[in-house]
User: What shape does this take?
Amino acid sequence: MEEIPELLLIDKPKGITSFDVIRQLRRKLNIKKMGHAGTLDPLATG
Assistant: This one.
């Protein structure tokens, strides 16, 4: 059976990059493989 990837929606705060969010989540959730669907500028939110 094929694994279905999980999706987690995050409202990124201003001042950090999309990869900073991924880095924090990897540590907190102890997940090695995680990525994002698009990069937001550090000054952008969303």
In short: The radius of gyration is 12 Å. The chain is about 25% helix and 0% strand.
